[in-house]
Specification:
Length: 395
């Protein structure tokens, strides 16, 4: 009986242990499947991100090469007449005669305008008569003095009266002359600003007069540029009113002091202007060659990554995959950032003093999206032109 009881107890415990083992096995299988799914998902995500993290970037490239580089200074200046004035009269009056046309070329001393001067002319005639009478009186008294019929004091008074009368005549002639406008120098007139019969006040502008050949060009340069600029040095000027035409001249004066506020110095050049195309007030872009020609590695300005901590470029480097014939075309090209020291600029070009060797392949466009080691794909699209002396044109 005892043996049967023990056997029955063991059977009941074995029956209860089987469901527990099955449940634990099922839980283990479920956790294993979950773990495997998570691991598989993580591996696939990692693989996907690894493939998308650094795809080849399409860029345009250029080759660094030496070019003849002649340093020059550029500036913006304003044309100024050698002689220029807004003509006016010292006295007021009514315009009686106009002797010029707007835009006319006039000679020095040419009569331009007269104010009404009837009253002044009449007064001049009266003063001339008084002066003539004073002269007659003086000559008569001088004759009587020789006969001792008058005194020396009377003759002296006559002399003083004659001088006073002649001075009043000269004064009145000056008043009349002030009502006549003459060209102070040869040049071209502007647009007439008065009409016949118009009353004008003293100092009212009647017309402008400008001497246009030659013509001055005033501009400023920074003080560090003075070492390469001297009197007699040639300049080239470009005016947007005449695209494609270059005007030449030479420096005739450099100011004797540097402006303390801007640290710039004023420079004046003279240009021939026989055809009067250049007029005062126009602005011009100026080029001044300041040194001898040098050989410099040049790059397009678009190839430079400008930054406060230093300027740089991206060089195209080849890895082993680039030499693998089984690799796809362009494989194995990567970007390598290189810091550079730049020189002067010339239009679309910039001189590179350090950082880029001759013959290096440099990214010219598309470098904004690059970093060290980025794979590259060279674009087949034509590159925009690089001009050392571009001329902007309205489209």
């Amino acid at each position: 009986m005892l043996a049967d009881s023990i056997s029955s107890s063991r059977d009941r415990r074995g029956f209860r242990a089987k469901p527990m083992a099955i449940m634990l096995a099922i839980v283990a299988v479920v956790f294993g499947l979950l773990y495997g799914f998570v691991a598989f998902r993580s591996a696939m995500i990692k693989q996907f991100l690894a493939g998308m993290a650094n795809p080849p970037q399409t860029v345009s490239v250029t080759t660094a090469a030496f070019q003849d580089w002649r340093p020059k200074q550029t500036a913006v200046g304003t044309f100024r007449a050698v002689n220029g004035a807004d003509l006016s009269l010292e006295v007021a009056g009514i315009v009686e005669k106009i002797h010029f046309q707007s835009g006319e070329q006039v000679a020095e001393g040419q009569l331009l305008l007269e104010l009404r001067k009837d009253t002044d002319t009449t007064r001049l005639a009266s003063l001339q008569a008084s002066a003539e009478l004073a002269g007659i009186t003086l000559r008569r008294d001088q004759s009587q003095l020789k006969l001792h019929a008058t005194s020396q004091a009377t003759v002296d008074t006559d002399v003083a009266n004659l001088k006073s009368a002649e001075a009043q005549v000269a004064q009145q002639e000056a008043v009349i002359a002030q009502k006549t406008l003459r060209a102070p120098f040869a040049g071209r007139l502007g647009i007439r600003g008065v009409d016949l019969g118009q009353y004008i006040g003293a100092g009212s502008v009647i017309v402008t007069l400008q001497a246009l050949d030659p013509i001055f060009l005033d501009f400023t340069l920074p003080q560090q540029a003075l070492n390469g600029v001297d009197v007699g040095q040639p300049i080239d000027a470009n005016v947007d009113a005449f695209p494609g035409k270059k005007f030449t001249g030479k420096i005739i004066a450099i100011n004797s002091k540097v402006d303390q506020a801007s640290r710039n110095v004023q420079v004046r050049a003279s240009l021939a202007n026989a055809d009067h195309k250049l007029t005062p007030g126009m602005f011009a872009q100026i080029d001044i060659v300041t040194g001898q020609s040098e050989r410099r590695i040049t790059l397009p300005q678009t190839a430079i990554v400008y930054a406060p901590f230093g300027n740089s470029v991206f060089l195209v480097q080849k890895s082993g995959a680039a030499d693998d014939k089984t690799a796809p075309a362009g494989a194995g090209l990567t970007a390598q950032q290189a810091f550079v020291r730049l020189g002067a600029t010339r239009g679309d070009e910039v001189a590179v003093l350090e950082g880029v060797p001759e013959g290096a392949t440099v990214v010219a466009a598309g470098q904004v999206k690059l970093r060290n080691g980025s794979p590259l794909k060279i674009s087949d699209a034509p590159q925009p032109p690089v001009d050392a002396d571009p001329k902007p044109v309205d489209q």
